[in-house]
Design brief:
Layout: H1 13-27, H2 39-50, E1 65-66, E2 76-87, E3 93-103, E4 108-109, H3 111-122, E5 125-126, H4 128-143, E6 147-156, H5 157-160, E7 171-178, H6 179-182, H7 184-195
Parallel strand pairs: 2-5
Antiparallel strand pairs: 1-4, 2-3, 3-6, 6-7
Length: 203
């Protein structure tokens, strides 16, 4: 039986800034020169924003639902949700978009809340496969619809600006749950809606 994880000790903004100064020195520059003097403060604040998802509960965004939908029981899709994240292996940016769909079971959620769920998970150190699964599982477990589909398309700067240096490459991942996985017609309808007329969705 594994032991429970210990809570992380809090890090002050001053400690974060000092770590950035150390990194600047390691890179070969002088953090005290004029152009870099305020960089540790700026970088610390930027990372506080980029990792703001750790302080958010994605399920809370889905808590308020609506049942007055006049019997609507077809797929709902929100396409082209832009996101920015960072790779947990190199802390390099991941830039992309998400397509989310679900087949409601008597209740729906405000569409802006789906975008907030995406942001809450994206604003953490991530790998794309995990991000895709987390979004889908959150919607499935909280709303309990008939099914959920999530497609993520993104470029990874850990391979475009370093390593193999391959630009113009995008990675596509998907998670299908419930009827989106078990029913071919539901899955096909979701893919058709994601592609849409004039959409830049996956082909």
């Amino acid at each position: 039986m594994s032991s429970p994880e210990k809570p992380l000790e809090p890090v002050t903004e001053q400690q974060a800034e000092e770590a950035i100064r150390t990194l600047l020195r390691w890179a070969g520059d002088d953090p005290e020169r004029e152009g870099l003097r305020d960089t540790p403060r700026r970088v610390a604040r930027a990372w506080h924003e980029w990792c703001g998802g750790y302080a958010q509960d994605p399920t809370a965004y889905l808590a308020r639902t609506f049942e007055e939908v006049a019997g609507y029981d077809e797929i709902i899709v929100l396409r082209d949700i832009d996101f920015e994240s960072h790779c947990e292996h190199h802390m390099a940016p991941i830039i992309g978009r998400v397509h989310v769909g679900y087949l409601p079971r008597n209740r729906v959620v405000g569409i802006s809340k789906l975008a907030r769920v995406v942001d809450a998970y994206a604003r953490r150190l991530q790998v794309q496969e995990k991000l895709t699964a987390q979004i889908a599982q959150c919607i499935q477990e909280t709303l309990q619809p008939h099914g959920v589909g999530v497609i993520v398309e993104a470029s990874h700067e850990c391979m475009t600006t370093r390593g193999v240096h391959k630009r113009g490459v995008s990675m596509v991942t998907s998670t299908l749950l419930g009827s989106f996985r078990s029913d071919p017609s539901t899955r096909q309808e979701f893919m058709r809606l994601v592609r849409g007329a004039g959409s830049g969705g996956p082909r």
